[in-house]
Design a protein that fits this description.
- The complex is a heterodimer.
- Chain A is an all-alpha fold.
- In chain B, a hairpin with a 4-residue loop joins strand 12 and strand 13.
- In chain B, the strands form 3 sheets. In chain B, strands 6-7-8-3-9-10 form a 6-stranded mixed beta sheet, with helices on both faces. In chain B, strands 2-1-4-5 form a 4-stranded antiparallel beta sheet. In chain B, strands 12-13-11-14 form a 4-stranded antiparallel beta sheet, with helices on one face.
- Chain B has 2 domains: about 220 residues, Rossmann fold; about 70 residues, Alpha-Beta Plaits.
- Chain B is elongated, with a radius of gyration of 23 Å.
- Chain B is of the alpha/beta class.
- The chains are: A mainly alpha, B alpha/beta.
- At the A-B interface, helix 1 and helix 4 of A face strand 6 and helix 3 of B.
- Chain B: It comes from Lentzea indica.
- Chain B: InterPro entries: AAA+_ATPase, ABC_transporter-like_ATP-bd, ABC_transporter-like_CS, ABC_transporter_ATP-binding, DrrA, P-loop_NTPase.
């Protein structure tokens, strides 16, 4: 009963956040404009110089783009919460008999919906530039679900950071320090085997590499000529991604909740 | 009569800043308490403790018979808060804001909508109901925020500086709204920096300074301590100042003060504008040339000066 109430409260807050997407459509436009530009840049500018044996680079590229897009999408959670706590609306929420968790649950849920919208737009963009799904519809659906699940878990980490820094501007700068290496020292745009030794180890164990590899596998965008990976997360990318999701949630859900209580009790 | 709000020895520190320094307060059910004090006196901190937003370091508080710390969840069902900064979402319409609050009070879908429409009509926001709040004026925002505090028909209502930052016309409108809403027997705690506002709205006034209640009483009782109304006038010459002094002597209810250099006279009076008219008539009869004359009512600053010996200045910390 209490859990149901918490979910109901969370969905009321999520609805509030989603109305913002409707009222300020620029947000959605700009959160898709950047990844679309990345697709065009890599497909037509850099792509020609990156050679993936046995497959077209655009097929290789799209899973990386998807991973990058949903990770960047998950950062909205942090800036959104940082913005909320600088305004009076959180005081209103806290004086109401609603579930304490609803603000965080609502925020992460609405950002998940936003990410789902964005990923559909990115898939259409991919299809236009020549990306193809070469697996069954069910596997492709599993690929999308896994990317979104990963982003959802990641948005709890962003929630924690957003509540820690308490300012949307600071958050935007702070999150880049974190999100750039995790997105690019990975197999998102190049094969991790081709990276120099140290970076290669980082890339192979990077959670983003696992989810990218899992998406490639589930969309059927793998090359028969690629050497079999020699680390466990890339040999079993789906399982590894799910593992990361669990780890992220176990660490960051309690941390974000703790930080929320600290951030607002002033 | 039972007390709707009871605070005993509340202390709240922010590092070395003491926001509440042993605050005691009792507000009987169904009455309006005005918490009067300058910026930084601790008014907002007190309201945050009463509305469960903040835990006090020491002391205890009960609102509607419930402990603000131990029974916070239960308590939130029966209080309403409208803060200094309108707690409304700019991207939502007025209706969506109130509907959301209703849902979070668990009124249910149908009842939340009905209540939202009801309140929008009551607060004269019907025409703007379906426009995003972004385009609202300051006064409209405050009214919407106040409506948000009333969604669940709370038995105890907290209004933290409801008119700060409003233009005079919106302030008067807000006063009407507040007077109207407490007719129903709601207990109201109102914080304000304006004596005039506390005077008009509150049954009892508690003057708060440095996190403590330093005086309590009705507006009249406080004004008696301050000295009530004064007639202030300026004349052109020292001779005329003397004439004015003797002419007005029997209107004074206390010691007159005159400033020889500025040719300025202060006469404590009682009786309002009738006294002002009488004074003007007499001065005119004596052919005293009055440069400036006015009836001055005590301000918060006067109350503070009388009660504490210092001016009502404060830093902007909560």
């Amino acid at each position: 009963m209490k859990l149901l109430q918490a979910l109901a409260d969370g969905s009321v807050v999520a609805k509030r956040n989603l109305i913002k997407i409707k009222r300020v459509p620029d947000l959605l436009v700009f959160s898709t404009a950047a990844p679309i530009m990345f697709v065009l840049l890599f497909a037509y500018v850099f792509g020609g110089s990156i050679d993936i044996p046995g497959m077209d680079y655009r097929e290789f590229l799209m899973a990386g783009i998807f991973a990058q897009t949903v990770l960047f999408g998950a950062t909205i959670t942090g800036s959104g919460l940082a913005e909320d706590i600088t305004k009076g609306i959180i005081d209103r929420f806290r004086s109401l008999p609603m579930a304490r968790s609803a603000v965080l649950v609502g925020r992460t849920t609405s950002d998940l919906v936003n990410n789902a919208l964005v990923i559909v737009i990115m898939m259409v963009t991919g299809l236009i530039v020549g990306w193809r799904i070469r697996s069954s519809p069910l596997e492709a659906l599993a690929g999308v679900a896994l990317l979104l699940l990963f982003a959802y878990a990641f948005s709890w980490a962003m929630a924690w950071i957003g509540l820690l820094v308490r300012s949307p501007e600071v958050f935007n700068n702070a999150s880049f320090i974190f999100i750039f290496p995790i997105t690019y020292i990975a197999n998102t745009f190049v094969q991790s085997e081709r990276l120099p030794a140290v970076l290669r180890h980082i890339a192979e164990w990077n959670p983003v590499s696992a989810v990218t590899a899992a998406a490639r596998e589930l969309f059927g965008n793998t090359s028969p000529l690629s050497p079999p990976p020699d680390v466990w997360p890339l040999q079993h990318p789906v399982l590894a991604s799910l593992g990361w999701v669990v780890i992220f949630l176990l660490i960051f859900v309690p941390l974000a909740n703790y930080q929320y209580k600290r951030a607002v009790a002033r | 009569m039972t007390d709707a709000i009871v605070a005993e020895g509340l202390v709240k520190r922010y590092g070395s800043v003491v926001a509440l320094n042993g605050l005691d307060l009792k507000v009987p059910e169904g009455t309006i308490m005005g918490l009067l004090g300058p910026n930084g006196a601790g008014k907002t901190t007190a309201v945050r403790v009463f509305t469960t937003l903040l835990d006090a370091d020491e002391g205890s508080a009960r609102v509607a018979g419930l402990d603000v710390r131990k029974q916070a969840n239960e308590l939130r069902k029966s209080i309403g808060l409208s803060g200094q900064y309108a707690a409304v979402d700019d991207n939502l319409t007025g209706f969506e804001n109130l509907d959301m609050v209703g849902r979070l009070y668990h009124l249910g879908r149908v009842r939340s909508r009905e209540r939202a429409r009801e309140l929008l009509a009551r607060f004269d926001l019907e025409d703007a109901a379906d426009r995003p709040v972004k385009g609202y004026s300051g006064g409209m925002r405050r009214r919407l925020d106040l409506a948000g505090a009333l969604v669940a028909k709370p038995s105890v209502l907290f209004l933290d500086e409801p008119t700060t930052g409003l233009d005079p016309r919106s302030r008067l409108g807000m006063w009407d709204v507040i007077e109207e809403l407490v007719k129903g027997g709601t207990t109201l705690l109102l914080t304000t920096q304006y004596l005039e506002e506390a005077d008009r709205l509150a049954d009892q006034i508690a003057v708060i300074d440095h996190g403590k209640v330093i005086a309590e009483g009705t507006a009249d009782q406080l004004k008696d301590q301050v000295g009530g109304e004064r007639l202030e006038l300026s004349v052109a010459t020292p001779a005329e100042l003397g004439t004015a002094r003797s002419t007005l002597a029997d209107l004074a209810v206390g010691a007159m003060e005159s400033d020889e250099r500025q040719h300025h006279l202060t006469v404590p009076v009682a009786g309002g504008s009738a006294v002002l008219m009488e004074a003007i008539r007499r001065l005119d009869g004596e052919s005293v040339k009055v440069l400036d004359i006015g009836l001055r009512r005590p301000t918060l600053d006067d109350v503070f000066l009388a009660l504490t010996g210092h001016h009502a200045e404060g830093d902007d910390k909560k």
